[in-house]
Design goal:
Elements: H1 3-20, E1 26-27, E2 32-34, E3 41-42, E4 48-53, E5 62-67, E6 75-78, E7 91-94, E8 100-103, E9 109-112, E10 122-126, E11 132-136, E12 147-148, E13 156-157, E14 163-166, E15 171-173, E16 175-180, E17 183-194, E18 200-205, E19 208-215, E20 233-239, E21 243-250, E22 255-261, E23 266-272, E24 275-282, E25 297-299, E26 307-309, E27 313-315, H2 323-326, E28 330-332, E29 344-349, E30 360-363, H3 368-376, E31 381-385, E32 396-400, E33 416-421, H4 423-446, H5 448-467, E34 470-473, H6 489-495, E35 504-508, E36 511-517, E37 523-529, H7 537-549, E38 558-564, E39 567-573, H8 581-584, H9 595-615, E40 619-621, E41 630-632, E42 638-640, E43 647-649, E44 655-657, H10 670-675, E45 677-679, H11 680-696, H12 712-715, H13 717-725, H14 729-736
Helix pairs in contact: 4-5, 9-11, 9-14, 11-13
This protein binds 2-acetamido-2-deoxy-beta-D-glucopyranose (8 copies).
Catalytic activity: L-threonyl-[protein] + ATP = O-phospho-L-threonyl-[protein] + ADP + H(+); L-seryl-[protein] + ATP = O-phospho-L-seryl-[protein] + ADP + H(+)
Organism: Quercus rubra
InterPro entries: Bulb-type_lectin_dom, Bulb-type_lectin_dom_sf, EGF, Kinase-like_dom_sf, Pan_app, Prot_kinase_dom, Protein_kinase_ATP_BS, S_locus_glycoprot_dom
Length: 737
């Protein structure tokens, strides 16, 4: 055979495979999937591919599954993760005894599917869910699959995949991180369900617990109020004698949501229109670290020190309470005496992540009072709680031994009752006696009737005190009133068609913006802050309060806010004409803007900025002034939006420094972009750029570097330099407005 014939034959061979192989979603017993031929299987709806790949910089070959139509190649499953093939000789096939095997260069088995059932006449098929299954050719019943990749997850949790246990077969499905982006072999972190009496999800580093979610309480995890049904995906926990697992489903077909265990953390992403955004991640902060504060330690982020003892306890270590000592935990102020039940009570801790459930006991049909009695009667029971918080609470869980890994979780409404000596009640009862004497004295003045009445009341009060020795302490979670209306998530979801993609107005660094219509017809803009940007709850509330105080006709008005579950949302007035950039950088629309209109817009922005800098109660630096952050109302009046990055200053402070430079390159003042030094002058710089853009209708694309003469600033460098040194320019400009 001469060379050209060979080339012709082999190229037609590849052409054949290129044309005919990519459509199949299955191979039968006589077919193979071969690395050298580049064959792949594509699920029927085109969503997933199974084939050979090399991750990152590695040259090793692996068989895996990835998303077909999202731009960043996202692997969701790897077959031979422990056993790479060093060249492209890998072949996937169903061997003659019906096993799914991956053969390497020596035709030895690099990986095989762990099929327990006797296979015969089988096919391998990649389902639309991304599940690779081995099944009988004419039997599509999932119960009868010989094997499925969903039972052996890698680092990715896909919709419909059960994470947890099949108690009948002892199969555990847990996520294991990749060792590195170049190496899919099992890394340190893993994530799965611990089968305690009261199951919970635990993230482990090696064999050590690193983070726990807290148990499922019917609505969510007590330690992770974020994991909850949302408009994007729903979520359920199933626990019966056969199975214990968690599962989620994507609700909107256009939005892909997956969870991945990274080398350092668990992350949930959503993909919308080919763009990825981080929804949330765990651990969220230092206080999520398992047992950081030791037994009876209470981890409170934002307080110094983070680790404190819960009420009624003091640090065990007599040394200064420093991070090295935290793990030693806390001891009781007053020793518990177990025998004398009169001297024991329970203190209610409102809104807490439940303690480690390793030594717990559950009965789903007991009520809270039965639970208390059960706990009271066993000296090693240290706490009790409802096991399910739906419909006002039901079920009973009790803890034996010291309590570990608790922290306040504001969004979670689960209470835990912790055993305490009654010394606090004793104080309470003494107070009670004083009250009794006073009441009796007063009552005698008002006569026998009153005495009787009061005695009745007293007895009932005292009964209450003695039977129910709880001290109610709302340690967490009073909701203070912000000066802005609160919108429920349901209202916002309805208004935005469940955050439909069709309602999307835009996307900022801080999340997606949707258009919504309230039931009364009012149009709103809904800014859904992405998880990555969500500051602490308190910071968010501060920001809401701040924005609410800013009232100016050239600033977008805040109508309300929503904090629910992991959602933090701001609701603004809707601006029908969109943002300024959609006019000035659009060849067809720029014609709408006459010179007087442009002048009006410039003056409006200047007024708004001046208000922020000089006239509002606080000195505010916007830090991200640009054309897309200037919105236009129906009369083309400009309004500055997006205070997400604004920095608040005390009245006399004019300059600050930050390590985290935020903003948009091209608009940023050099000293800010380079040194993180910002002041009102940085905003004035951005204003100058904006001014040039409005006048020229051209975008300032380049950087500010003097050697780049090409950008707008380069052209106008001298003017701009002058503008900055002669600050505040908005003021001067206003003289002409
Ligand atoms: C397997 O793939 C072929 C296309 O190559 C398709 O015609 C056939 O219907 C598929 N079999 C099943 C069981 O889906
Ligand atoms: C098919 O593969 C399985 C799993 O590796 C192996 O046990 C079995 O012997 C193989 N059958 C044949 C005929 O090679
Ligand atoms: C395959 O065979 C070659 C040569 O006999 C040997 O060097 C290599 O280690 C073998 N590889 C595997 C994975 O068994
Ligand atoms: C296959 O199953 C056996 C027994 O069920 C188990 O010990 C083994 O680890 C499994 N192998 C893989 C690769 O999952
Ligand atoms: C999600 O909601 C759909 C529709 O209500 C339902 O069919 C599905 O079972 C739910 N999935 C989960 C995991 O709760
Ligand atoms: C993995 O974790 C790190 C945080 O340590 C993060 O920066 C990174 O974006 C994460 N995600 C991916 C896909 O690597
Ligand atoms: C759970 O509590 C109910 C009601 O008190 C009781 O009837 C049942 O026996 C308990 N179950 C267990 C396993 O203790
Ligand atoms: C208290 O509970 C522990 C742990 O379940 C148990 O071992 C012990 O026997 C119980 N004591 C009493 C008095 O019921």
């Amino acid at each position: 055979m001469d060379i050209s014939a060979f080339v012709f034959l082999s190229s037609s061979f590849f052409l054949f495979y290129f044309l005919f192989s990519h459509a199949a979603d299955n191979i039968t017993q006589s077919q193979t999937l071969s690395d050298i031929e580049g064959t792949t299987l594509v699920s029927k709806d085109g969503g997933f591919v199974v084939g050979f790949f090399s991750p990152g910089d590695s040259t090793n070959r692996y068989l895996g599954i990835w998303y077909n139509n999202i731009p960043i190649k996202t692997f969701v499953w790897v077959a031979n993760r422990r056993n790479p093939i060093t060249d492209s000789s890998g072949v996937l096939m169903v061997n003659s005894s019906g096993s799914l095997v991956l053969l390497n260069q020596n035709s030895t088995v690099a990986w095989s599917a762990n099929s327990t059932k006797e296979a015969g006449n089988s096919i391998v098929q990649l389902l639309d869910s991304g599940n690779l299954v081995l099944r009988k050719e004419n039997d599509e019943n999932p119960e009868n699959y010989f094997w499925q990749s969903y039972d052996y997850p890698s680092d990715t949790w896909l919709p419909g995949m059960k994470l947890g246990w099949d108690l009948r077969t002892g199969l555990e499905r847990r996520l294991t991180a990749w060792k590195s982006p170049d190496d899919p072999s099992p890394g340190e972190l893993s994530w799965g369900i611990e089968l305690h009496n009261y199951p919970e999800i635990v993230m482990k580093k090696g064999s050590k617990v690193y983070f726990r979610t807290g148990p499922w309480n019917g609505l969510g995890f007590s330690g992770l109020p974020e994991i909850r049904a949302t408009p994007v995906y729903n979520f359920s926990f199933v626990s019966n004698k056969d199975e214990v697992y968690f599962i989620f489903d994507n609700i909107q077909h256009s939005v892909i949501s997956i969870a991945v265990l990274n080398q350092t953390r668990y992350e949930r992403y959503i993909w919308v229109n080919g763009k990825r955004s981080l929804y949330y991640h765990f651990p969220r902060d230092e206080c999520d670290t398992y047992n950081l504060c030791g037994v009876y330690g209470n981890c409170i982020i934002g307080e110094s020190p983070k680790c404190q003892c819960i009420q009624g306890f003091k640090p065990k270590s007599t040394e200064t309470w420093n991070p090295e000592e935290w793990s030693k935990g806390c001891v009781r102020n007053t020793q518990l005496s177990c025998q004398d039940k009169q001297k024991i009570g329970f203190v209610k801790f409102v809104g807490y992540k439940l303690p480690d459930t390793t030594y717990s006991w559950v009965n789903q049909s007991m009520n809270l009072e039965e639970c208390r009695v059960k706990c009271l009667n066993n000296c090693s029971c240290m706490a009790y709680s409802n096991s399910d918080i739906r419909d006002g609470g039901s079920g009973c869980v009790i803890w034996y031994g010291d309590l570990i890994d608790i922290r306040p979780t504001a969004a979670n409404r689960q209470d835990v009752y912790i055993r305490m000596p009654a010394s606090e009640q004793v104080k309470g009862k003494q107070k009670m006696k004083v009250i009794v004497i006073v009441v009796v004295a007063i009552a005698s003045v008002f006569g026998v009737l009153w005495i009787l009445y009061c005695l009745c009341k007293m007895t009932s009060l005292r009964d209450k005190m003695e039977n129910n020795v709880m001290i109610d302490q709302n340690i967490e979670g009073q909701s203070e009133d912000l000066e802005v209306p609160f919108f429920s998530l349901a209202t916002i979801a309805t208004a935005t068609n469940n955050f439909s993609i069709n309602n999307k107005l835009g996307e900022g660094g801080f999340g997606l913006v949707y258009k919504g219509t309230l039931t009364d017809g009012q149009e709103i803009a809904v800014k859904r802050l992405s998880q990555s940007s969500v500051q602490g709850l308190n910071e968010f509330k501060n920001e809401v309060t701040l924005i609410a105080k800013l009232q100016h006709r050239n600033l977008v008005r805040l109508l309300g806010y929503c904090i629910e579950g992991h959602e933090t949302i701001l609701i603004y007035e809707y601006m029908p004409n969109g943002s300024l950039d959609s006019f000035i950088f659009d060849q067809t629309r720029v014609g709408v803007l006459g010179w007087s209109m442009r002048f009006n817009i410039i003056c409006g922005i200047a007024r708004g900025l001046l208000y922020l800098h000089e006239d509002s109660r606080l000195r505010i630096i916007h830090r991200d002034l640009k054309a897309s952050n200037v919105l236009l109302d129906s009369n083309m009046n400009p309004k500055i939006s997006d205070f997400g990055m604004a920095k608040i200053f005390g009245g006399d402070q004019t300059e600050g420094n930050t390590k985290r430079v935020v903003g948009t390159y091209g608009y940023m003042a050099p000293e800010y972009a380079i040194d993180g030094l910002f002041s009102v002058k940085s905003d004035v710089f951005s204003f100058g750029i904006l001014l040039l853009e409005i006048l020229s209708g051209k975008k300032n694309r380049g950087s500010f570097h003097p050697s780049h003469g090409q950008n707008l600033v380069g052209n106008e460098k001298n003017h701009l330099h002058q503008a900055r040194t002669n600050h505040p320019q908005p003021m001067k400009l206003l003289l002409h407005c």
